């Protein structure tokens, strides 16, 4: 075993998976940029205070943060998510409203690594700051849905809830605290610990022993103000108008503290239930204020790349693209033929690769096969002497010799497949 390996929960993403990650982000960017979202690239590291606001009562903040004091005595943390960074950036730069931003990149949470759960994991996400309009909630939720569709996923489900206004949410939280407190002896030990920290999160419990007490728990709908009930009704009507299917889940509270009004989560149809949350989000109308900005409503979501790609594997969609080049140059002359030709082909817009270390013809042919090239160009000492080159279509077509003067044009034709492979001809 090598002395150094990646730390637990951290991975190297190698080809072809790395190309799939890149395409994933590209499809996401295409989806959301078509809806007016602009990219933001926040730093990986922020003052810890930015993330404390994400929720003093959440594991993400209390237990899982990668934080340290830097050489300038600043207490900083690697970001566990990007919503707080986007809000901090808003307060710092004050872009015009509505501000529609998208992002992608790694986040860090010191969690117990398992399938679909890592300590460094990538997300893509969007945030909209400014409007309270339920049409924004609908747009955001629908864009996530459309993105999953664009990947080819068909078994994703959407769960939707509302936590009401902050005052609804706190009255509801108190009612839950009382209800669960009255039945504390019937709850699992771990659930009692959750209750002490955050009664809302008890609703997340999947422990069978908690099921009865959960069933009789107060319901959020009974705590909605008129405004909250109306907002939620309009979000639902908007999703219906778009034909985005969802289920109402009264117990969906989500893991971060900043949510109010709408919350939602997308789940994979095939993953284990513990890790089937592909992404989620909601409204966080107080976060900008908490970070020192003016009262500014916000809503967004983040989707986990790893889990979404696992769901793609399970559904057999969005496979890693095969790696290939247009041309592979085989040069047995020992000179700079391959160096010059690959440069010429690349400048003409083709992708071109070659072998190194003056390998035998046979070994270079093998490398050409492995590269999945469409065309091999072969230069040996005969070709060098006569100013010619051999073109070999790698799809099994017959090879032919051309003059160096027309080589680029011939290679372009064969590699692009825009014209049928020229009939073999020998140049006199
Ligand atoms: P979150 O639910 O904590 O929300 O994370 C969103 C998604 O990131 C999860 O559904 C999951 O796919 C992925 N994820 C989270 N932790 C891990 C992990 N340890 N390993 C692999 N994947 C993980 C947020 O982060 C909020 N910022 C979403 C949001 C945006 N709310 C409003 N705007």
Description:
With 428 residues, the protein is of the alpha+beta class. It is 37% helix and 20% strand. The protein is built from 16 helices and 16 strands. It has helices at residues 17-33, 48-52, 59-62, 83-93, 134-151, 166-182, 189-197, 199-202, 211-215, 226-242, 287-290, 305-315, 337-347, 361-370, 381-386, 407-416, and strands at residues 38-39, 45-47, 67-69, 75-78, 99-108, 120-129, 157-162, 247-248, 260-267, 277-283, 298-304, 327-331, 352-354, 375-379, 388-393, 400-403. Helix 1 runs antiparallel to helix 5 and helix 5 (134-151) runs parallel beside helix 10. The radius of gyration is 28 Å and the shape is elongated. It starts with 16 loop residues before the first helix and ends in a 12-residue tail after the last helix. Mean pLDDT is 93; it is low at 419-428. The structure holds histidyl-adenosine monophosphate (HAM). Histidyl-adenosine monophosphate (HAM) binds at residues 81, 83, 109, 111, 116-118, 121, 123, 125, 127, 255-256, 277-282, 284, 300-302, 304, 306-307. The site of histidyl-adenosine monophosphate has 26 residues, from strand 6, strand 10, strand 11 and helix 12.
List keywords for this structure.
disordered C terminus, 428 residues, 37% helix, five-stranded mixed sheet, binds histidyl-adenosine monophosphate, elongated, single chain, alpha+beta, eight-stranded mixed sheet
């Amino acid at each position: 075993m090598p002395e150094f390996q990646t730390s637990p929960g951290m991975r190297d993403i190698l080809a072809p998976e790395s190309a799939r990650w890149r395409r994933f982000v590209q499809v996401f960017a295409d989806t959301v940029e078509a809806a007016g979202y602009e990219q933001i690239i926040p730093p990986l590291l922020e003052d810890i205070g930015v993330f404390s606001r994400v929720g003093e009562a959440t594991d993400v903040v209390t237990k899982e943060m990668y934080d340290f004091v830097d050489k300038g005595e600043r207490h900083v943390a690697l970001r566990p998510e990007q919503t707080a960074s986007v809000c901090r950036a808003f307060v710092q730069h004050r872009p015009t409203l509505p501000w529609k931003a998208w992002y992608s990149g790694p986040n860090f949470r010191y969690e117990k690594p398992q399938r679909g759960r890592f300590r460094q994991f990538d997300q893509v996400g969007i945030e909209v700051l400014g409007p309270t309009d339920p049409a924004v909630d609908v747009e955001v939720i629908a864009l996530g849905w459309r993105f999953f569709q664009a990947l080819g996923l068909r078994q994703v489900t959407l769960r939707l809830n509302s936590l009401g206004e902050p005052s609804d949410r706190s009255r509801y939280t108190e009612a839950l605290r009382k209800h669960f407190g009255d039945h504390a002896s019937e709850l699992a030990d771990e659930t009692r610990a959750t209750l002490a920290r955050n009664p809302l999160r008890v609703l997340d419990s999947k422990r069978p022993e908690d099921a009865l007490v959960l069933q009789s728990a107060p319901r959020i709908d009974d705590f909605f103000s008129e405004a909250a009930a109306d907002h939620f009704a309009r979000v639902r009507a908007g999703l219906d108008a778009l034909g985005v299917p969802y289920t109402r889940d009264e117990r969906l509270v989500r893991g971060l503290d900043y949510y109010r009004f709408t919350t939602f989560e997308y789940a994979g149809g095939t993953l284990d239930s513990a890790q089937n949350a592909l992404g989620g989000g909601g409204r966080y109308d107080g976060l900008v204020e908490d970070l020192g900005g003016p009262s500014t409503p916000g809503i967004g979501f983040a989707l986990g790349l790893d889990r979404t790609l696992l769901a793609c594997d399970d559904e057999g969609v969005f496979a890693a693209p095969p790696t290939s080049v247009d041309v592979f140059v085989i040069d047995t002359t020992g000179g700079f033929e391959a160096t010059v030709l690959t440069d010429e082909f690349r400048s003409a817009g083709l992708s071109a690769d070659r072998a190194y270390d003056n390998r035998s013809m046979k070994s270079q042919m093998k490398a050409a096969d492995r590269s999945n090239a469409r065309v091999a160009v072969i230069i040996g000492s005969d070709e060098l002497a006569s100013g010619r080159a051999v073109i070999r279509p790698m799809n099994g077509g017959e090879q032919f010799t051309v003059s160096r003067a027309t080589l680029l044009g011939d290679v372009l034709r064969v590699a692009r497949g825009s014209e049928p492979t020229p009939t073999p001809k020998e140049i006199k």
